[in-house]
Amino acid sequence: MAADEALAHAAEQSGRVLMRLYGWRPDTVSLGGFQAFAETEQQPELAGWPIVRRPSGGGAIVHGSDLTYCLALPATHPWGRRPEDLYAAVHGALVEELCHRGVAASMVDAEVAATVADDSFFCFDRRAFGDVVITAAMAGAVAGGCKVLGSAQRRLAGVVLQHGSLLLRRHPSMTGAGSHAGLAEIIGGTGGDSAAVVVHWLERLAARLGGPLAEMAGVSWTADDPDLSRRVNRYAGAAWLRRR
Amino acid sequence: MDKPRRYAKSHEWARLEDDGVVTVGISAYAVEALTDLVFMQLPEVGATVTAGESFGEIESVKAVSDLYAPISGEVVAVNAELPGKLETLGDDPYGSGWVIKIKPADVGQLETLLDQTAYDTLVGSESH
């Protein structure tokens, strides 16, 4: 989370659009910025799991079988002015790629979002505007589809940070409420492998941005970076984790 | 006639009251842009806020946004009813939807904020 915030700072300073993609080790649960920490205690599957809190909103995510991204862009960027525009750009690129592969993917519209409770503990049980869902008659399908990509934004002064989680496969440790089908289970056999989907999703996103993918990388930090250390201390502290 | 408001580029408004306290809120434009508000976190009375730095957060179904202090000083009142009645922000953003009141460290800081005309211009540019 500290690195993501530092990425946002770098995007603001440089005026560039920056994106970071990462996995998790060890597997971890991330809570939305306003979720009550006590809610995790009502999820027996999560007992003993490492827990962090994101600066962005939304529901809890079980990380370990997903690809997490953080996209940061200056608030003056055409995609930065309205929350919907950035969701549509990033999620639309994935929908485009999945549909190209013959997968029945779509973004949740406001009408459907209004029919599903938005206070579920897990992100992948919620349906918000722009979420990427795939029409599939599988356990966990809500409002006609399984959610494979959800995102949430933190709008800071001068910069927008968007977090998102692309569920690559069902988490092997989850069998109850935290179990959600991922790309591998949903499109396996019809839409190709998940890794290829990710690569082409990012290429389509880069094309929408109007620049080659390579230019979306290039920020690094060292452990003795005082700015990063300050951010790490904040996100590692109990005051942040248990703020609610 | 309403007292004139000043605005931060981050869309908070500030209004100097007769007792020297500055009332702070969120502009109607910003509230409308946030839409579907679900949660708000505000500072405690007695907290010190610094101009340009975050003093609270507001979550909508689409995004979490920081609230930035338009002026430095001490928080002397918080609209405690607001988090439980977020629709007030949209219904009456410049009246009962006020957020905090600040005893300013330097009331002259208000002059560094945008006046109504400049803010309207900013909103117009962001809307296109």
Describe the protein.
The complex is a heterodimer of chains A (about 240) and B (about 130). Chain A contains 7 helices and 9 strands; from the N terminus they run αβββββαβαβββαααα. Chain A is α+β, with helices and mostly antiparallel strands and about 240 residues long. Chain A is globular. Chain B is of the alpha+beta class. Chain B has helices spanning about 30-35, 85-90, 115-125; strands at about 5, 10-15, 20-25, 35-40, 50, 55-60, 65-70, 75-80, 100-105. The mean pLDDT of chain B is about 90. Chain B has 3 helices and 9 strands. Chain B has a single domain (about 5-105, about 115-120), classed as RNA polymerase II/Efflux pump adaptor protein, barrel-sandwich hybrid domain (OB fold (Dihydrolipoamide Acetyltransferase, E2P)). Chains A and B meet through helix 2 and strand 8 of A and strand 4, strand 6 and strand 7 of B.
What characterizes the major β-sheet of chain B? Answer: 6 strands, antiparallel
CATH class designation of chain A: Alpha Beta
Number of beta-strand segments of chain B:
9
CATH superfamily of chain A: Bira Bifunctional Protein, Domain 2
The CATH topology of chain A comes to BirA Bifunctional Protein, domain 2
Counting DSSP E segments of at least 2 residues, the number of strands of chain A comes to: 9
Number of domains of chain B: 1
The main sheet of chain A comes to:
6 strands, antiparallel
CATH class of chain B: Mainly Beta
Annotation field: number of helices of chain A: 7
Q: Regions of chain B with pLDDT < 50 over 5+ consecutive residues?
A: none
Mean pLDDT of chain B: 92
